[in-house]
Amino acid sequence: MTITSTESLELRAQLAAGVAEVFTDLESGWRDRVIDTDEGFDPLLHAQAVGLGWAGVPVPEEFGGLGLGLAEAMAVIEQLGRVLAPSPLVDALVVGTALGRVGVEPAAQEVLGRLSGEAAVVAVAGLTAHRGEPVTATGIEIGSDGIVSGSARCVAFAGSADLLVAVGADQVAVVDAAAEGVAVTAQSGLDHTRRLGEVIFTRAHGRILGGPDLADELRMIALLSSAVECAAAARSCLETTVEHLKTREQFGRALGTFQALRHRAADLYLTAAEARATADYAVGVASGEVTPRAGQEALGDELAVLAPLAKVVCTDALMTVAADCLQLHGGSGFTFEYPIHHYLKRGKAEQHRLGTNSAWRAYFGQRLGLNTR
């Protein structure tokens, strides 16, 4: 195992603290106010985040970024997950990290510059398989000339995007959202903190960003970001509930003094801790800070399992924690004014995004040589 330097850990802690401070200073109820707007996020807050350098964390310095790596980008994503921030910043970090790791084509230089310097909203299309298709399937075809055709559903913040990153089977292209041949239709989603849209490309002119290596990298980093967000959300949801148990009284006693509720909260703590450990290990392997058990030569093969495994474990953990926390809040947990329902909806939505968890389990079984039919 590689030991991460103290300076790197301190830098990540500073990044995380800076992100957390911005959201702590927002007024109460800001999330519910933002999700009711046309965009589904706060453009001023997004511009502030870009101005503070968050979007440029993984972007190489020559393109206006901070030149940091995957682990630092995940430190920002973790804080966004804690507060379930309605923000397109996650896709910007996923794209910036992937481009920085794989290599920069000429067209990618413009994308990186706009991500870190112009507060451009980027949406990634083609990472979610259609029902009944393999988890790595995509409904988008990209020609060698950059012509993009096909469709992608459940694309986060597609309606507000300036740039659409289209992920095909073996190529990735960027398309201007306002280009001819691009149509975006709003979709209703369970998770109100992530505004969804269906993107249809009809021979839209795009610019090639990379080949199959970039497509695989985008899928892997998107899965890791889902795991990190959900692990952080599970902890935040539980912390909110524990505070409720400490202060809410019944029969003249705080709810937290009842043994049955204390044991239930302890079980949820273990679930959240397991999710965090899984996400941390997956990010550590992907960033090169943790050596796979089978050795460095098995890195690619291990990540092919580890990234989706982390997604499955962490999304299931969030769903378990949020469902129980809603019950622990009693009747108030079912009201819209309390934030618990947002965590529950995020958990359920993430179980189906980027390939359903049941489809990923079938994939794991196939790799183990099991008959999953």
From TrEMBL:
Which top-rank group of organisms is this from?
Answer: Bacteria
The Swiss-Prot or TrEMBL record describes its family as follows: Belongs to the acyl-CoA dehydrogenase family.
GO-annotated molecular function: acyl-CoA dehydrogenase activity; flavin adenine dinucleotide binding
User: Native species of this protein?
Assistant: Branchiibius hedensis
Give every Acyl-CoA dehydrogenase/oxidase N-terminal domain span.
34-115
Q: Which cofactor does it need?
A: FAD
The protein's name in its UniProt record = Acyl-CoA dehydrogenase
The Acyl-CoA dehydrogenase/oxidase C-terminal domain covers 225-359
